[in-house]
UniProtKB/TrEMBL annotation:
Pfam families: LysR_substrate
Spans through the membrane: 15-34
Keywords associated with the record: Membrane, Transmembrane, Transmembrane helix
SUPFAM superfamilies listed in its UniProt record: Periplasmic binding protein-like II
InterPro entries xrefs: LysR-type_TF_proteobact-type, LysR_subst-bd
Domain LysR substrate-binding: 3-65
Species the sequence originates in: Comamonas piscis
Name of the protein in question: LysR substrate-binding domain-containing protein
Family: Belongs to the LysR transcriptional regulatory family.
GO molecular function terms noted in the UniProt entry: DNA-binding transcription factor activity; sequence-specific DNA binding
C-alpha cells in the first residue's frame, strides 16, 4: 500500500505509537527503542543522505524525593551504558 503525506507529532510517545502501528520510519533515541530493536519488532535503518539535528535532552527533577532522584539517575546511566 502506498501512502502519501507527512505525520507530525510532538512527543516521543506519539512517534513511538505511530511507528509501532506501521505509519513509517521514525527518528528516536536508541535507548528509547532498545527493547523493540532487540526483540525484532522494529529494525534500525541507515539513511545515508540524512543527518539528524542535534538536540539537547534535559531531565528536570528538582522536586523529586531522594529515592526518586536516585532511581532516575540509575535508569539514565544504565540506558546510556548499553549503547
Amino acid at each position: 500500500m502506498r501512502v502519501a503525506g507527512r505525520l507530525t507529532v510532538n512527543s516521543f510517545k506519539g512517534i513511538h505509537d505511530a511507528c509501532m502501528a506501521g505509519a513509517g520510519i521514525a527518528l528516536l533515541s536508541i535507548w528509547y527503542m532498545a527493547e523493540y530493536l532487540q526483540s525484532g519488532r522494529l529494525v534500525a535503518i541507515a539513511l545515508e543522505d540524512a543527518q539528524p539535528k542535534e538536540l539537547a535532552v534535559w531531565a528536570v527533577y528538582l522536586f523529586f524525593a531522594t529515592h526518586q532522584r536516585a532511581q532516575t539517575d540509575f535508569q539514565m546511566r544504565s540506558r546510556l551504558q548499553r549503547w
